Amino acid sequence: VQLVESGGGLMQPGGSLRLSCAASGFPFSSYDMRWYRQAPGKSRELVAGITAAGGNTHYADSVKARFTISRDNAKNTMYLQMNSLKPEDTAVYYCYAAGGYWGQGTQVTVSS
């Protein structure tokens, strides 16, 4: 099983980034998926989740209306579109597959 995040980086407040999570080694289209994040000195928190077929999504209150989770089961890939970024979005973002699989994380830094 492998989950590989990409797309992180440094962005100014108000900017946008799109994270990707490429999955392999398990039946991706059968698994609910989530994005988590962990800021320095804080515990890991759930950012967004999406059901296996992509029909249902949920978001943390802090990112609602700014972030959009999606997936392409044909490409075994999940995405997180992040708009109107704020400094408090700075964190390592992790991809998670229900069943206990984690990616290695990608750093997102929002700063002017």
Q: What does this entry look like structurally?
A:
The chain has 112 residues and is mostly beta strands. Helix content is 0%, strand content 51%. The chain is built from no helices and 11 strands. It has strands at residues 2-6, 9-11, 17-24, 33-38, 45-50, 57-59, 67-72, 77-82, 91-97, 101-102, 106-110. Strands 2, 4, 5, 6, 9, 10 and 11 form a 7-stranded mixed β-sheet that branches. It has a 4-stranded antiparallel β-sheet with strand order 1-3-8-7, with no helix packed on it. It is globular. The N and C termini lie far apart (37 Å). The mean pLDDT is 97.
Which features does this protein show?
112 residues; mainly beta; 11 strands; globular
Extended strand count: 11
Order of helices and strands: EEEEEEEEEEE
Radius of gyration equals: 13 Å
The portion of residues forming beta strands comes to over 45%
Rounded average pLDDT: 97
N- and C-termini, Cα separation: 37 Å
Shape: globular
Separate helix tally: 0
Structural class: mainly beta
* Overall helicity: under 10%
Report low-confidence residues grouped into runs of 5 or more: none
| Main sheet attributes: strand count, strand direction, barrel closure | 7 strands, mixed
